[in-house]
Amino acid sequence: MDVFVRSVAEYGFEDTDIHTVCELSGVTSSEFNAWFGSKEALFVAAYDAGVDILLEAASDAFLEVDGSWLARVRSGLSALLHALADNPEFARFFVLEIHNAGGAQTRIARSIDAASNMFVNVQPADGLAIPEQELVPLVVGAIYGEIYFYIRTGRISELPLLTAKLTDFANCMFDNADFVSSRIS
After folding, report:
1. What are 38-43's contacts with CB under 8 Å, separation 24+?
2. Measured CA angle at 107 (ends 88, 69), to 5 deg
3. C-alpha angle with apex 94: 104 to 145, nearest 5 degrees?
4. In a domain, 12, yes or no
5. Which tens digit of pLDDT belongs to each residue from 18-45?
6. What is the pTM of this model?
């Protein structure tokens, strides 16, 4: 899968040739077809595996902090941003190329739903006329949008610098954030 991710990050999903990926991976076409069957299925498997690693890193960092909700969110965001910055090929694959592969909407929705777990049992900040069930996807979507912008514009190495800004953004959206559940799944 690593060869495939690097190839998609470099050439794009459409221009990635499975025969070349198989050659570079030491896998026969028959083995590829038995395991995945299509380039789209390989993409989904690689995306899901990578997202699981990202979410586990963010979740572990969130849960390891013994402190306020804000400190846990900062830790989770920092882990996510560093993981993407440390793996620029996967960052491009994860954020940009997902839109070019089959099943993109389902995968993006799964990622956003999982990230939303950091924001359960929170109340909108005073003065916001947005119900909680609408605010959480809005906040997670805005964070995703900022990450997307940095990756799309080639600023992947700068992602960790967003930690404070994104944490402050999330914090200003919610009141009573310390009542957040300590479980992310």
Report:
1. 39/13, 40/101, 40/102, 40/103, 42/1, 42/4, 42/18, 43/4, 43/8, 43/13, 43/97, 43/101, 43/102
2. 75
3. 85
4. no
5. 999 999 999 999 999 999 999 989 998 9
6. 0.80
Q: Which two tokens stand for residue 140?
A: 């997670």
Q: Is residue 4 included in any domain, yes or no?
A: no
Whole domain around residue 169: which residue ranges? 42-179
**For 95-152, what is each residue's pLDDT tens digit?**
888 877 766 667 777 777 777 777 766 777 877 777 777 888 888 889 999 999 999 9
First to last CA, the chain: 24
Residue pointed to by tokens 């997670």? 140
Residue 162 lies in a domain: yes
Q: Which residues lie across from 176 on neighbouring strands? A: none
CATH number at residue 110: 1.10.357.10
Q: How many domains does the chain have?
A: 1
Residue 108 CB coordination number (10 Å): 18
